[in-house]
Each structure stands twice: as structure tokens, then as C-alpha cells.
Amino acid sequence: MVAFTTKYKPKCLADVVYPDTQTELDIMSYENAGRFNNIILYGTYGTGKTTIARLMPKAVVDDVDEDNEVDFINGSKVRGIQCIDDVEDFLHLTSWNKKGFKFVIIDEAEQLTKQAQFALKGVMDRFIDDAMFIFTTNHINDLYGGIQSRAEIYLLDPPPVERLVPLVKHVLKCEKLTMSDPQINQFTAKYGTSVRNLLMKLETLTINAKRKASQPPSTPNLSCNTTLNQPTPTSAAITSNPVSCNTTLNQPTPTSAATTSNPVSCNTTLNQSTPTSSKQAA
Ligand SMILES: Nc1ncnc2c1ncn2[C@@H]1O[C@H](COP(=O)(O)OP(=O)(O)OP(=O)(O)O)[C@@H](O)[C@H]1O
Ligand SMILES: [Mg+2]
């Protein structure tokens, strides 16, 4: 099974969930070379910094040759001054995309040595017209001020719940799972500390729901409204044998005959201590 962080990875800048409208507009303004600045993407883990960095060259110039006109450097692996010499050699090569642009992505840039960061300053100046440097970091304070002053800086914080909910709904739909809106909000608030974390929790939820759905019905159990839409059975079959999930997403004890008929519990990692429905629902 493909990891959800890969399966639901943004394919273009517009797919990214941004922390706020201004950041979204700022990042999107680079599309089709609407802007051409060096940028620094910083912030907490799993909020899309590397994803945006990798998508940016194609967004800026759609015919970029990503193998030959984009230099991706993992700053925590390649740290010293030699790396800057290599960057310079790369930038001297000809670019064949329609704008003649080149892109240097330095991921985890604060991991470059001080000497390397310092040397980069001059290289950024020399190639200012046709090279875009894209830095990502979790620790902006460890990035040399000379680099910071040559780039637009964007903070990638975890997006608020309302911005994450469409992504959660999209995943649930693709995975044929259903959850009520209050459950989705609750789930997203709990696990949306980063988009990466949210996708991993959705993956766990999905795996557990599908595993339980493939097991024979057991004795009646606590249930919630996270149901797996089975692909083949008719809706009548689904309602007579719903898959339920006693997670924090639990709702008050359901009253519908369909849900109480023969639920299959789904002990995902989302399980909390035995829920007291009214408290959970509150
Ligand atoms: N803002 C986002 N919008 C959509 N998907 C996201 C977003 N942020 C992260 N993801 C998902 O999480 C995965 C990991 O994201 P990414 O590696 O870009 O995070 P990061 O900010 O670089 O994390 P780190 O600080 O740990 O390096 C992506 O492949 C994608 O599936
Ligand atoms: Mg990263």
C-alpha cells in the first residue's frame, strides 16, 4: 500500500494546503514567473516546505528540465564549501527552458556550515538574474543573515482546521470512508498538528477500517459513525452491517436500527479510553 503522504502529495502549488490566504497568494504569485526571487520556507515539521520547494521550478517555468536545470541539495548531507563550488559549476551551465532559468533547492539549509552559507551569498548575487534559490529550514535563526536578506521569507505553520478539512474530506472520499462533519472537525483538530501527521493518521484510520470490514461481524460493540463504504454491496447491505469505529470520533450512542443491528468495531490507533459518549460528543 502506498503511504498516504505519497498518495495524497500535492501535484502542483494549488494543491498545497497553506496556513493562510496571504501565504497562499504569495507563493502562488511565483507561478509562470509572476515573480522571480530567492525564497526561504521555514517552520515546523511536516507543513509542506520541501513539497513546495520541489514544485516551485515547474510552477515558475513549465518547460523546466527538472533533471538538468534544478539542483536539489540536502543540506544535512552535503554541508561544506565544496557544495557551493558545485552549485557555481551548475549555474554556469546553459539552461534550455523558455526563460533560461535555473533553480537551486537547498533543503535543511541551516545544516550547511557557516563557511558554506557565507560563500553562498556571493553566488546568489552573481546569478541573481537567472537563478532562483529555494531554501527550507526548521530553524530560521540558524540560517545566515546574509542569505535571509537576499530572499523572501515565508512561514509554513500548520494550517488551521478549516483549511485542512477539505483535504480530510477528499481522502475519506477516495478511501470510501464516511464521517460526520463534527467528527471530521474533531479528527482534524486533534491530528492536524502537521499535514504529514494528519495524512498518517488518516492512513491508520483507513487501514483499520478496511481490516475490520473484511472480518466477520462480531458481537455488538460501541460504535461511531466512521463507516466504510463497501465497494460491491448494495446500500441495503451496508446499512445492515455497518463498520463502526470506537474512536475519539465517537458520537453519542446511535439510535438508528441500522447502526445497532450488527456493528463491527474498528479499533484504530485513534482509540481513546472507553468513551463516555456525552463527554466525547461535548
Ligand atoms: N501544506 C501541505 N499541503 C498538502 N500536503 C502536505 C502539506 N504539508 C505536508 N504535506 C504532506 O506531507 C508530506 C511531507 O511534507 P514535506 O516533506 O513537504 O514537509 P516539510 O515541511 O518539508 O517537513 P520537514 O520540516 O519535516 O522537512 C508531503 O509529501 C505531503 O503529502
Ligand atoms: Mg522538508
From TrEMBL:
Pfam families: AAA_24 (PF13479). SUPFAM superfamilies: P-loop containing nucleoside triphosphate hydrolases. Residues 252-261 have a biased composition (Low complexity). The keyword Ion transport does not apply. Keywords: ATP-binding, DNA replication, Nucleotide-binding. Transmembrane segments: none annotated. InterPro entries: AAA+_ATPase, DNA_Rep/Repair_Clamp_Loader, P-loop_NTPase. The keyword NADP does not apply. Residues 220-251, 262-282 have a biased composition (Polar residues). Residues 35-159 form the AAA+ ATPase domain. Residues 210-282 are annotated as: Disordered. One of its GO terms (biological process) is DNA-templated DNA replication. GO terms for molecular function: ATP binding; DNA clamp loader activity. This is Replication factor C small subunit.
